[in-house]
Amino acid sequence: MKILLTGAAGQLGRSLQRTLGAHDVTAYPHQRLDIADLASVRAALAAEPPDLVLNAAAYNRVDDAESDAGPAYRSNALGPRNLALASHEAGAAVLHVSTDYVFDGGGHRPYHEYDATGPRSAYGASKLAGEHAVREHNPRHYVVRTAWVYHEQGGNFPRTMLSLQDRDEVRVVNDQTGSPTYAPHLADAITALIDTDAYGTYHFAGRGQATWYELTRELYRRMGISTAVVPVGTDEFPRPAPRPQYSVLTTIQEPRIVLPPWEEGLAAFCTRLDKAA
């Protein structure tokens, strides 16, 4: 399959370039392709006509979007719309990666693909707008929602917690629960999905659930870090954008592709960090 990959320099984009080795991939980081520019998108597809456009690009500055939503909508809504429109014109399918932030977080059981959405933040609203645009402009679409993605490289929560290990204690939120997702595991699931032609919406996230505190405690245990981890409430770290209190993802969609437990993803992350050290 010929694949045009956007967001190639990000955590997921790097992982996808490894898992998509059996395919012919043209990888575009943001610097080479601005997906919010429709003319540029059409030109890229004309230069390398793909069978699938895989969009791993996103604007992820959640708090900044609350005061200035324009950049978020440009990247998370207009960009996916352009990719869906241009891919449909070219006779290609499209896969778009979305987020657990499309849910309001008020539930008490894992969200599946048919649950009602209701984002509470500008970022979440921009991602939901991108989903709608992809579904509207290309019937051959996959929308993949994921959550709490991390990788050995790039800015993410586990790497931030590791940077704080020399403190006497680390205070971590314990009243937000989600699905920690290791980027290579997510890339494996996406790679399996694109061979199915089973278009639709999917939830791909680390199996099980954890709070940020539980994730940090397990990270420090696996890395042999003795720094005390103290559970605190969200109100101790006020942020401009509200976070979903509970946004665990599960899947009931067929084909049912299930990621490994989040603990296995964290173990792989720690192993790779140790080998790189």
Structure description:
Helix 5 links the parallel strand 4 and strand 5 (141-146). The chain has helices spanning 11-19, 38-47, 62-67, 70-89, 122-137, 157-163, 183-193, 212-223, 262-276, and strands at residues 2-6, 24-28, 52-55, 93-99, 141-146, 149-150, 169-173, 177-178, 181-182, 200-203, 210-211, 228-232. The protein is of the alpha/beta class and 277 residues long. It has nine helices and twelve strands. The chain has one domain (2-154, 180-209, 243-261): 3-Layer(aba) Sandwich (Rossmann fold), CATH 3.40.50. It is globular. The chain has a six-stranded parallel sheet, with helices on one face. Strands 6-9 form a two-stranded parallel ribbon.
Characteristic key phrases:
Rossmann fold, two-stranded parallel ribbon, 277 residues, alpha/beta
Give a brief outline of the structure.
The protein has 277 residues and is of the alpha/beta class.
Residue share in helix: 25-40%
Largest sheet: 6 strands, parallel
> How big is the Rg?
18 Å
CATH level 1 name: Alpha Beta
Q: What structural category characterises the helix and strand content?
A: alpha/beta
Number of strands: 12
Oligomeric state as shown: single chain
The secondary-structure element order is EHEHEHHEHEEHEEEHEEHEH
The assigned CATH architecture is: 3-Layer(aba) Sandwich
Instruction: Classify the fold: give the CATH topology.
Output: Rossmann fold
What strand order characterises the main sheet?
2-1-3-4-5-10
Contiguous helical run count? 9
Shape call:
globular
CATH superfamily, please? NAD(P)-binding Rossmann-like Domain
* CA(first)-CA(last) distance: 36 Å
Q: In percent terms, what proportion of residues is strand?
A: 15-25%
> pLDDT below 50 for ≥5 consecutive residues: which ranges?
none
Overall average residue pLDDT: 97
Number of domains: 1
